[in-house]
Amino acid sequence: MRVAVVGVVGRLGRALVQALEEAPFTGFRPPIGWDQPELELDTVTAASFGALLDRERPEVVIHTAAWTDVDGNAREPEVAMRRNGTAVGEIAQACAGRGVDLVMLSTNEVFDGRRTDGRGYEPRDERHPINAYGAAKAAAEHLAADAYEGSAGRLAIVRTAWLFGPPGADFPAKIAAAALRARAAGEALRVTGDEVGTPTYAPDLAEAIVELIGDDDPPPPGSRTIHHLVNGGRASRADWAREVLRALAIEVEVAEVPSSTWQRASTPPLWAVLEPTPLPSGLAMRHWREAFRDALPARGPAPGRETWDHGVLTPASHAAGAHCTGPHRSLPPPHGRGTNELRVTGRSRHWPDGRARRRFKGPACPWELLHCARPPSASLPRWSPASASSPRPARRPRSPPPRTPRWRSSWARPAA
Ligand SMILES: NC(=O)c1ccc[n+]([C@@H]2O[C@H](COP(=O)([O-])OP(=O)(O)OC[C@H]3O[C@@H](n4cnc5c(N)ncnc54)[C@H](OP(=O)(O)O)[C@@H]3O)[C@@H](O)[C@H]2O)c1
To answer: Ligand 1, residues 52, 62, 68, 106: which to mutate, most atoms within 8 A of Cβ?
Structure first.
């Protein structure tokens, strides 16, 4: 099965590439990856996306690309509607017209979060967004569903929430950085206590999506389904922050504050809990705390070393300057960045050809280094300018080892 991922350098896009590479039904070819500048949400049309489809001929498109800066969305709602709303409609039209299946990513923010009965939102619940990001995503759901009316292809709307995982700049990374600042200033770390959601580990979500599309008994052509794919459990932002601090051994007092404390452009839904829908295997995604533990490195730091071998990066070692020089996650060749090995040394992040990778702007963050650290190994190529033009490095075993994918049973039936 040929699968194309739109937004291949994003948090979920990367995880999907890895999950697809490990899936038994995708063959030896790597998944097709599209991102900027080839695919630009500001300008994409059904015709331009159709040209990409005609060139690469995927059977399934997974659309993850989005403008995920919710405050930016609130400040520029027209741009938000274009990137996160109408662009998805254009992509859906192109796919539906060719009978190509589409999985589009959506969010808990299509709901207002004012629910008080303690239950998570279900697929059949009425959408009622309260911010520009949610409004654009809700529009995208409508436009995509309209496009698939009478199509030979299938549409799956996958809603998720509170994604975390590599490459960093996620909630755990921000909390870790804020905690170090608060501790240095001798202050408590202030975290929202009244915002509750379902933290979801991007690699787990990727596996779940791959399970959806890998079914040998798919729903009928023209089906339009909604799936709520999140890890199990729920947590307030403060609960989650405490878990991060415990895991990173950062000792700082946590002060719970109401979300109204923060002046921000967007209004987050306070109840961000989605009721998970069953996976084709009948299994639910694991609890977020278990996923979070897996996301942490397994081994402690080697004493006296400057490289961290899956080690817990302590504030002290972070302050001393971190060096992580092993080979890193690779991205598929269509992305056109040489070997696509990412090198993280101290505070600089760049591709092997020397171009700065803009999503890694900003200070080095413990979380990102934790994710990126790999044990130096004689059997693995170290990055050097000479290796920049060599083929992709040999696949390394993941750490922690991948869970056995659950390729079973049938595609989830229409949820509503
Ligand atoms: N993050 C969450 O907590 C969360 C929660 C619920 C739902 N979701 C949804 O899940 C999906 C994946 O989220 P994520 O966290 O993986 O997002 P992400 O890390 O921010 O990645 C977004 C992707 O979209 C691309 N992109 C951004 N602006 C673009 C533009 N104007 N034109 C073309 N591509 C553009 C980015 O490319 P560049 O990096 O090159 O800009 C990147 O590949 C999104 O649809 C998001 O709305 C996310």
So the answer is: 68
